[in-house]
Amino acid sequence: MQWLKYILALMSLVGLWFVGLSLSAFIPLPASLLGLLVLLLGLMWLKRIPPALLKVSQFVLGHMLVLFVPATMGVLLYAEKLADNLLWLILSIVVSTVLSLGITARICQRLWQPTDQPPATPHDD
Amino acid sequence: MLNTYSEQYPLVSAFMWSTITVGVYLLSLIVFRLLGRRPAFHPMIFCIAMLAVVLFYTGVTVESYQGDTSLLTWLLGPATVALAVPLYSQIRSIRGNGLGIMLPILIGGAIAPILALAGLYFVPLDSDVKLSLLTKSITSPLAIETSQHIGGIPGLAVVIVIFTGIVGAIFASITYRIFRVTSPQAQGLALGTVAHAIGTAQGFQMSQKIGAFATIGLCINGVLTAIILPIIFFLIS
């Protein structure tokens, strides 16, 4: 019986995506985002997460990477167009990603410390 | 040879290439584990390299491969919906820390594309390539639609999005060590904001809490970029 619930949870994710798709005709946001918001509202209304949905979403999100693979293979299509400046492009993406990661986390940590962890370590800054 | 096969039996070849993709993905997970789960050997790198070799030797074009595996790509939609679950589990901390969440996401969401563009200011790349960088930090279903709006190349935008995600996942731990970021909220939020779904997947590898906060960053930055970027472009042009 348990796996039936898992299938039901999986189908409800697909169903909610279609709900998002039909909503995107009226609201100019991507279907997946609207589906997400509908599910979020539903969970807030339920006030709990159904155990099967929790299990299924953990599984799906844990292996979401595989769904990116086909799109990533598109890199081969643009290899020629980018070949001359590939090194610069890669360097720029790596540097900007690392810097923004560090800066964003740093700002967030500073803003959270007063409310979340009262005794901030003095030697940390 | 396989190309004509694909035309004759579209369902069979769709099933075959989806299975091959999942198989290669599982194989790269095993390799990743065997090599000691070092972030530098991110499973996506092995997976892409291996599939590129397979495509080369079977003579199948990237376009027909992408057509055959469109079901996997489509499933990204329902998978994105599933992000509502970890988001809901953190809803109390979101409500209590509006500024601590919104400000870092706004700043991170703005500096990531700006820094990338600035680094390429003197590099002679076509403007549509440069515009494709602007959506680099948002998750690919959103990036495709937004890139179309602002004159980028959607296919390239997706590649850049995924590359950014892999870079974020690989460099997260070392970046946090250098910047001395210890709080799981900050680690997660930054990962989701800058490195979207792939960063979020890495976050869940680190801990459930980091993953949940990465989801917050992913969702809010995705929505903000999808709304703000077309407006800015509308105003400029």
Automatic annotation (TrEMBL), chain A:
It comes from the Bacteria. It is found in: Cell membrane. The chain crosses the membrane at residues 29-46, 58-79, 85-105. Pfam families: LrgA. InterPro entries: LrgA/CidA. GO terms for cellular component: plasma membrane. Keywords: Cell membrane, Membrane, Transmembrane, Transmembrane helix. PANTHER family: HOLIN-LIKE PROTEIN CIDA, HOLIN-LIKE PROTEIN CIDA-RELATED. This is Holin-like protein. The lineage of its organism: Bacteria, Pseudomonadati, Pseudomonadota, Gammaproteobacteria, Alteromonadales.
UniProtKB/TrEMBL annotation, chain B:
It is a multi-pass membrane protein. Pfam families: LrgB. It comes from the Bacteria. It is found in: Membrane. GO terms for cellular component: membrane. The lineage of its organism: Bacteria, Pseudomonadati, Pseudomonadota, Gammaproteobacteria, Alteromonadales. InterPro entries: CidB/LrgB. The chain crosses the membrane at residues 12-32, 44-65, 71-89, 101-123, 156-179, 210-236. Keywords: Membrane, Transmembrane, Transmembrane helix. This is Inner membrane protein yohK. Signal peptide: none annotated. Its main location: membrane. It comes from Paraglaciecola mesophila KMM 241. The keyword NADP does not apply.
